[in-house]
Design brief:
3-stranded antiparallel β-sheet; 22% strand; alpha+beta; 3 strands
């Protein structure tokens, strides 16, 4: 039986972590407060009391920003999905870095031209 290399062990760890990720939503949950501009409104007072907070999910699709309003119940329901996306991105970066290290150890550093 052959012994697993450090790269193979790291690949197994990343693969196991990836397999444990469920749904993953890209983008950001944003909490904003706004001022409406109406004279005499509480948001114009001193001190100002802005409207909100309002929750939204913001993400980029084909180079355009999409925003969707969400309510507090949806925030609780989908919070894990947003967390999963951050884990997914981190694990993907680790896998890419591991792949580069494995290639460079097998083939040597890139040619300098």
């Amino acid at each position: 039986m052959t012994r697993a290399t450090p790269h193979q062990r790291e690949l197994a760890r990343i693969s196991t972590a990836l397999a444990g990720i469920g749904f993953a939503l890209p983008g950001s949950l944003v909490r904003r407060s706004t001022r409406c501009g109406k004279a005499g409104c509480r948001c114009q007072a001193d001190p100002a009391v802005p409207h909100g907070p309002y929750l939204s999910w913001t993400r980029a699709v084909n180079g355009k920003t999409l925003t969707r309003a969400i309510n507090p119940e949806q925030e609780q329901r989908y919070r894990e999905w947003f967390d999963n996306h951050r884990k997914l991105r981190r694990l993907l970066s680790e896998l890419e870095a591991l792949s580069i290290r494995a290639l460079e150890e097998a083939e040597g550093p890139p040619n300098q031209r």
